[in-house]
Amino acid sequence: MLKSAGLFPRDFKKTYPIAVRGEGCWITDERGRRFLDASGQAAVISIGHGVKEIGRAMAEQSAQIAFAHTSQFHSAPAEKLAARLLALAPSNFQNGGRVYFTSGGSEATETGIKLARQFHLEKGEKNRFRILSRRQSYHGSTLGAMTVSGNVARRAPYEPLLAEWGHVAPCFCYHCPFEKSFPQCELACANDLQVHLLEHEPERAAAFLFEPVAGATLGAAPPPEGYAQRIAEICRKNKILLIADEVMTGMGRTGKPFAVQHWNIEPDMILVGKGIASGYAPLGAVLVSSRVVAAFERGSGAFMHGFTYQAHPVCTAAGNAVLDYLESQKLFERVAPAGKNLRDALRTVQSHRHVGEIRGLGLLLGVEFVNDKSTRVPFPKEQSIAEKIRRACLEEGVLTYPTQGCVDGLRGDHILLAPPFTISPDESALVARALHSALEKVFPS
Ligand SMILES: Cc1ncc(COP(=O)(O)O)c(C=O)c1O
User: Fold this and answer.
1) CA–CA gap between residue 181 and residue 174 (Å, rounded)
2) How remote is the CA of residue 440 from the centroid of ligand 1, in Å?
3) 67: CA distance to ligand 1 center in Å?
4) Are 261 and 287 in contact (CB under 8 A)?
5) 308-344, pLDDT tens digit by residue?
6) Which residue owns the Cα nearest ligand 1 atom 8?
7) Whose alpha carbon is nearest atom 7 of ligand 1?
8) CA of 105 to the centre of ligand 1 (A)
9) Measured from the CB, is residue 40 less than 6 Å from ligand 1?
10) By three-state DSSP, how is residue 98 classified?
11) Under the phi-then-psi rule, with left for phi > 0, alpha for psi from -120 to 50, and beta for the rest, what region is 198?
């Protein structure tokens, strides 16, 4: 076995198998063990592992020209992918929208934050700089992205480095922060944005950033009907930009190219990452609507920002090849039925005394484990239930994405399931069987 000596690991107390091959929904390690990738790693893999066309497209681009700096050249694959992404986006991105490519989700968040700030400068609104967001959210690991994130554990060590621009209530019906239920709540969580704005110098607010389906932190919590529309209304009324962080939900994961399309809202920017290149290349993007682009075009003309590797020709070639595959194999269309199939398979575990809720949209599902099903009380943090479930699933050869803290930042255990869109009914049944045995092991009766 290859000994880990040089690579800085995520966790020094863990050992990591070496992944040597990927095929469809499966990963094989150096010892020949096969794992069913039920989490698409971290909701990254959409078309499946080992699709040869993607590597070929990247090699061809690399042989032609691997790199040209965006201060001097644009490249054909970047131009092509930008146009294709805009065509998939809501109508306010047509006729003048643009795409800013990055190397991943966190860079997309940073770019979105700075675009929002400079947009207001271009409009002569110098006081607007605050990017409002939600508690219990995740937007990336760089400092700007951490500033807007509300994930308690991931923020904790860096609190002294983070500014506070304002966090409002999460939208989380299973553990409603207002202890209300829909629809009697009248969307108190959405209204919390308006309340916050009234109480905290609305003239300094620049944008509101949110995950349309809260992914890692809340375990795939979709909003109730009307939430996204109300948020969009409040942003418009208060003259602040709306930024949808679709790094996890975008590129088809919830059954539409972008999750905001389930509610027909038109955000001013959409952040993407993960599925945009399905893990074949480090790629992210900010889709910028025509209105925001126009402010730059008519204003200073230059965005004060840049990354050496933005709009990388080989990475955007990978993005085009992934999109070709999604389209030719009709994989966008597969998400809704495959998601339903996985949910149906999971019905066998839904009745378990410690499975509180199975939620999500399309192929972004969360399974939350509770100590008491009738009161929804979580397990004490120290019991590390999500991690125990992950390990027990792994023993059954199934990979999941565990997180703690969905209830209050510390307590609350869930796993995320976000498999490739190609997952078959047999593979879904295998995921359900693995979770069933994991529950038996972790909670022996
Ligand atoms: C909603 C959301 N935004 C941003 C990010 C950060 O993306 P990356 O890890 O590619 O920097 C993530 C990553 O999990 C995410 O889920």
Assistant:
1) 9
2) 32
3) 25
4) no
5) 999 999 999 999 999 999 999 999 999 999 999 999 9
6) 105
7) 105
8) 5
9) no
10) strand
11) alpha
* pLDDT band for position 445 (cuts 50, 70, 90): confident
CA distances from 190 to 168, 180, 195, 199 (A): 9, 13, 9, 15
- pLDDT of amino acid 116: 98
Establish whether residue 150 lines the binding site of ligand 1, counting it when its CB lies within 6 angstroms of any ligand atom: no
| Per-residue confidence (pLDDT) for residue 145, from 0 to 100 | 98
Kindly report, residue by residue over 3-35, the tens digit of the pLDDT.
Answer: 678 999 999 999 999 999 999 999 999 999 999
Please tell me the distance between residue 139's alpha carbon and the centre of ligand 1 in angstroms. Answer: 5
Query: 401-404 and 413-417: which strand pairing?
Result: antiparallel
Q: Tokens 């790629």 map to which residue? A: 283
pLDDT value for 215? 95
Q: Is the dihedral of CA 250, 254, 258, 259 positive or negative?
A: negative
Statement: residue 2 has pLDDT above 80: no
Q: Indicate if the pLDDT at residue 1 is higher than 60.
A: no
Helices (H) and strands (E) in the chain, counts: 13, 15
Q: How far, in Å, is the centroid of ligand 1 from the Cα of 445?
A: 38
* 139 Cβ below 6 A of ligand 1: yes
Q: Is the CB of 140 under 6 A from ligand 1?
A: yes
Q: Closest Cα to atom 5, ligand 1: which residue?
A: 140
Contact 402, 415 (CB under 8 A): yes
Helices 188-199 and 227-237, interaxial angle, to 10°?
Answer: 20
* Three-class DSSP labels, 229-287: HHHHHHHHHCCCEEEEECCCCCCCCCCCCCHHHHCCCCCCEEEECHHHCCCCCCCEEEE
Mean pLDDT of the chain: 97
110 CB near ligand 1 (under 6 Å): no
Per-residue pLDDT tens over the stretch 30-52: 999 999 999 999 999 999 999 99
Looking at residues 202-210, what average pLDDT do you find? 98
Distance (angstroms) between ligand 1 centre and the Cα of 273 equals 7
Separation of 149 CA from ligand 1 center, angstroms? Answer: 10
Sort 150 into a burial class: Cβ within 10 Å, 0-12 / 13-18 / 19+: buried
Backbone angles phi and psi of 41, in degrees to 5: 60, -95
DSSP state of 186: -
Question: Shortest CA distance to 90 belongs to which of 199, 224, 246, 321?
Answer: 246
For the ranges 147-156, 213-222, 261-270, the lowest mean pLDDT is seen at 147-156
Nearest CA to ligand 1 atom 10: 105
